[in-house]
Known about the structure:
The structure holds 2 protein chains of 2 kinds. Chain A has 13 helices and 12 strands. By secondary structure, chain A is α/β, with parallel strands linked by helices. In chain A, α6 links the parallel β6 (171-177) and β7. The radius of gyration of chain A is 23 Å and the shape is globular. Chain B is mainly alpha-helical. Chain B has a domain at 19-219. Chain B has helices spanning 2-32, 39-57, 65-84, 92-114, 141-163, 165-175, 177-182, 187-209, 219-234, 239-259, 265-279; strands spanning 131-134, 137-140. In chain B, strands 1-2 form a two-stranded antiparallel sheet. The radius of gyration of chain B is 19 Å and the shape is globular. The model of chain B has no long low-confidence stretch (mean pLDDT 90).
Amino acid sequence: MSHRYWSKSCLAALLLSASLGAHADVKIGALFPFSGGLALLGDESYRGAEIAVAERNAAGGVKGEPVTLIKADAVDAGQAVGTARRLVSNDNVTAVFGSYSSALSFAATQVTELAGVPYFELGAVSDPITDRGMKYVFRSNPTAKTFAKGTITAITDIIAPALKVDAKQLKIAIIHEDALYGTTIAGFQKQFAAEQGLNIVEVLPYSAKAVDLSSLILRLKGAQADVVLQTSYQNDTTLFFRQLREAGFAPKAVVGAGGGYSMQDTAQAVGAKNIDGVLDVDFPQFQTNEAGAPGIQAFADAYRKKYGMEPRSGHSLINYVGAKLFLEAMDQAKSLSADDIRAAVLKIDVPVGQTAAGIGAQFAENGQNQRAETTIMQWQDGKLMTVYPASAAVAKARFNPQP
Amino acid sequence: MEIFLQLVLNGLLLGGTLAIISIGLTLIFGIVRVVNFAHGEFLMIGLYAVYLLNHHLGLHPYAAILPVVLLLFACGAAMQRFVIQPLLNSPGHIQIFATVGVSIALMNGALLVFGADVLTVANPSGLGTGNISVGFLRAGTGQVLTFMVSLLLVAGLHWFLQSTFLGRAVRATAQNRNAAQLMGVNVKNIYVFAFGLGCACLGLAAGMIAPQYPVFPTVGSFFVLTAFVIVVLGGLGSVSGALLGSMLIGIVDSLAGFYIAPDLKEVVYFLIFLAILIFRPTGLLGAGRGSE
Lengths: 403, 292
């Protein structure tokens, strides 16, 4: 009696799980650093993807099936490999979203590519990620090269006209932290500046762990630099501005690239008064004109509603836009096989200025979005205001003689 | 010439900041004979303590020095009593592993509690963030004050170690712990005291540098590597050696950053570090042969 009962219920359970398997959700891995030193912005990035998925599900999901995000934590390259393996072999995900940090992206994509699972990079900036001949790695966000280009555009299109001088007459100094991040961007800056015929007077790398930059500042002062381009983290940005003040040196303009320059707490540490007028090239942030970034306010509202706080940085926005693009491509694909998804991604055609982050989308053969541009912003009265491109601008760039 | 003098001044002022941190390290190194890899993390604790006192009670960082010094004395004494003392007779590398472990635990603990954000003290009075200029030379007032405090600290410690009974007991323990024990010195208590004293210096450093540097979980590692070089350069356990070493490294840092390249200044002072280890292993003002 009891024996028959058990075999019946086992059979029922089997049937049930088989039928569940047939109507399974579309599973997508979300590989970000959720713990460790990168956790803050890793989590901020994830929130963007999470909102995109929630929106998609409310609108009927992908191919009529709801999408489930499987959160996967990776703090370093080693863990990224392990986590990616788990996602593709245990969880059988259809695709993976990632990863904020370039180091994690490099490692995780090796695994997903071998397994033939599409990897959608939404936030890591290192150029070579999409230059390794991988078939199923796609990236929606701007890369380091675009950041560098943005800083040079800031000189030629904003600073030189505002100061009413020829850009070629400005003395430009490049300073950067000396690890991979700073070195990569500085390399591209030199290249673009040379193409524009700009005059670079100093290129000074320094350790991001430096506790004193006074000699570097004296070099800038000695070279009488008009414009300083800095690629840095938070701590060295703060240190640079403090010692700039102590040395009594005021370049006509300072342009930062990402990281150290976009965070509200950097501005706080530097002091709103001291950072006023400083330009910043980065992913679009929230003080952006709706006309050049349709949907940005709706996203900010959705964010506030879901998390009960203001967005902590523009990372959520760029991840949201990327995730939305890729979910749409998956929906349009003939099937959810990797090759069909690739075909659908390559067909995406969104003009610049038509997404909530202001970027457009068209993917090259290597998987990189060709229409991902950075935005140029300026710190004005303690707020990061978009000043370029004109369609997304909410304020005009202004230059006061710095204190 | 103007630039050269400004560079030397910058170097000396940086040396002042490094001196307070290195003196703490050299006391622990020279007396307890433990390489304290958690030294930077104690500085981090000090900076967070200053931040909390500033944030919640509105204390100026300089006013927070007294409570923070006491707190760090207690932290250091507890570290010696509960982590190092049980390992006192183990080989040196076991003690090093223990301090590295404490360092990693503290760093990640701070990450857990405070997150990776960069926090800054509020300083509406502006004391310690202004500038002064004499002729063509310019300097931050915070750095000048830190420099003067480092000189006072050296003078104070020198008086304490040379002229008080407790100071003599500390020196005796540093010279030969077995002989000191035979003379009736309670070596274990001296160790607890010395470790606490070394960490208390960090409390002083934290209060002095808080108006200038923001705090974040890995801030300690920014300072401590240089402090190790300074301590070896000046001679293990020598307070005045640490001061001299700090000034030298500060000036080397400043000059190399200008005349060579900002990213190569570490290379220059690590070369000095190697040269010292090879040619004068006891350091500039080290005790020389005969000490333990």
